[in-house]
Input
Amino acid sequence: MKKQLLALSAALILVFTMILAGCGPGEIDRYKELQSAMKTSDMELSAAFLENASSFEEVSGVLKIWAVNAGLEVTSEKEHYMIIRNPATEGFKDAPKTTLQCHVDPKHIRKDIDLLSLSMACLLGPIEHGRISLMVTEDDEEDLFGGAATVKKKSLKKNHLIHLETDDSAMVYTSGAVAATGHMTCKASKAEPEYTEAFEIAMTIPQHADPFAFDKENSNPNPVETIGNLLASAKSSGRLFEIASFTSETEEGFLPHSAKAIVVIDENNVEAFTKKFDSSFENVEKKYKDKEKKQKNGDEPQSDEPLFTYTMNPVELPEKVLKQKAADNIVSLMYTLQTGINEQNEETGEIMTVSYISGISTNGGTVSLNVRMRSKTEEALQTLSGTNQVISGLCDVSYRESDPAVIWASDPEGHLADFFFRAVDAEKDTMPVLLARSEADILGARGENLDMIYYRVNKNHRNKAIKNILAFMSGEDVPE
Output
């Protein structure tokens, strides 16, 4: 019944307002009408989802009923995304097409209601309009941006796309970062171990951890760096050990979700090395205290799964270990390589360049370590590349790098970027660049001739966002 009420209320407001008011199209204040529709959707979505949803299917079911009753077309209803279309009005079939895109996390749907109701209101568009589509994608903690990654490429062709997000402040981004990957390699010849006590040091974190979340609340330690720093610390303290192997597992675009090193330690150094591990474990544990408190306080869902695992356990003595030179190269990289925030404006605090270790392997007779880099400018990325080149030389490893490329970008001469850039009254010196990883990365990579902006809206800005989007789709200039 609640789902039916949602659809009926939205339809009543948007279909019968003109009739009840006795107004013609030219007399309607469409902005106020859509503002009213958004507020109603806020209430009805809250009533429909008194608790969080169990699946994306449940969310799309509510939206499908709303769409049908509002006279809209559901053109795609897939497992992880759906597309609702508002066809062009008479005489506007050749007008530019606009796609609005937002995401929802079914297991936390209540926090996404503001974004969803804003998107639904904007889909209804001005009185006269070209084709408007709303793409709703699933985005949950277990499969971050999973919905966007499954959208068919034909839905992302030659289109204006407005990616909508909610956050503390309003902003429009017209480009993703400039990105590149650095590859550091050296030979990994092996020999018989000199020491006798073998241990496996292993660490795991959530599989889809964001490598560019540097705030304390959302950041995760990098398992490769954590274990690498432990080895570097032990080496600097004179602890005697050998490295048999060092590997990691990751998914494209995320922090390594696991890393494992097999080390062979001199029997007289086991106790001291273990103390080093205990200290490293305590540092990791501190990073997760805030998240554990949130779970206990009910701010986040309780989970039976640990937030991380980090262990040091005895294993059988391996037949071979890395020769000292290769092991020293690994330790030297961990001493020297700086990842995280690499460059930051001292006056404004603006982060310019970031990087992270995306993986390590000692398989196949080669030590291979990869570093992912992002920057707001190509010049800043070149500076970081030069630093990595120097570090590689100092650590006696080879360095090569992929060609730098902008992850996604609006048409710099297009109306979409210019309109919304002016709409949020951003500084005119440079078009804003989004350094963080986002759904726009996924959509931009899959799109063909896709003209896209990332429009970040806070709760108090939603009414203005409706006015801006309505003016853009009506072919008007930025509203006062």
